[in-house]
Here is the input.
Amino acid sequence: MAKAFDAVRFYFDRAADQLNIPENIRYLLVTPKREVQVEIPIEMDDGAIATFIGYRVQHDNARGPMKGGLRYHPEVDLDEVRSLAALMTWKTAVVNLPYGGAKGGIAIDPKKLSRKERERITRKFVDQIHDVIGPDTDIPAPDMGTDAETMAWIMNQYNKYHGFSPAVVTGKPVELHGLPGREEATGRGVGILAFKTISRLGRKPQQTRVAIQGFGNVGSHASKFLHESEFKVLAIGDASGGYYRKDGIDIMGALRYALEHHNSLAGYRDAETISNEDLLELDVDLLIPAALGGVITRENASRIKAPIIIEAANAPVRPDADEILAQHKITVLPDILANAGGVTASYFEWVQNRQHYQWGLNRVRQELDRTLGDAFERVWQTAQERKVSLRTAAYILAVGRVVEALRLSGIA
Ligand code: NAD
Here is the structure.
């Protein structure tokens, strides 16, 4: 994950160079506003006391309350949380949401804990940080290892201190102040943006052959959207491997299969099995890495045949590989825009909670399309005007907006 941090910093610096941002303002922009580290002692199911460490890093609030996920993973540490918090500042800015960036995490393996233990850890964590989060300050959301239920516990615990405040977290269960369409939003956003990208490049979905790595939340919803929009999805894959069919995968069948097999494609027989490495190098028109970071490296970049890549995962392309893809004239839609559908829907959930008015699914989908569409147009235009890649354009737009907010507030 340190690699992801290096990448964010690298792209930030490149945009800052383009914008001629002086050193003191760069320092201000890369330094988090606040870093909180807390001890979380709880009683385990067997009666023993165990202590865990939790973090919340609030990177920047020049454009509004800070927003970012809460991750439960054994490798969570301050460095990782810090880098992901900065990434959120740029992601919210590129989509023009009135937010800053934050991130949190607890170093635990949620799979090795009981539901009750996870609940106790979550509530104790809220006891420690409730003073620094809130609907107007910092709004957590689900991330790796956390889900809608975790958000419901956070809301409930926070309410004990501050009264009814559903807008303190997003990604809540739809039945408990959550937003219809929040769960599909990242994958759907990837699909919407894939459509906009190929259209700009003069392609039609029917002529666009797609390979998607990852069939979890993001990959499966993106596959569904692309299939319904008449793209030809030739390959899908997950941790169990890749699955390829020259005439197109039966996406609805694959979705059913995964649902019936604990969200895994292991044993899926309606396609040829290939390795995850081969999937990335297939002769297709559009490649969507939607699983892990760092999968396109200096080693395999020159073997990528797809002329278009949509970065659904965070940091799937390493910076040195990015240079090679650029030399091969491959169009890359960067992660800070490509997977921003989730935080955009989180914003709608927050608005819904503050309005005390339940949004319907159609409204969510329309607003998602509009918001991501506007962001896409601005990034595309910036890339054309400045003759830079879409990634550099996205960072220029994001960093420029944060600097402008600081200037207007009289800070920089
Ligand atoms: P998920 O856990 O639901 O799914 C991950 C998928 O990746 C699974 O299908 C898994 O089998 C697959 N996978 C794991 N290891 C693999 C490997 N070695 N090779 C190929 N596939 C492998 O996660 P998700 O929520 O779909 O997130 C996917 C990516 O998108 C992550 O990089 C995440 O950070 C990013 N992202 C997610 C969201 C969101 O709202 N869920 C938002 C922004 C970014």
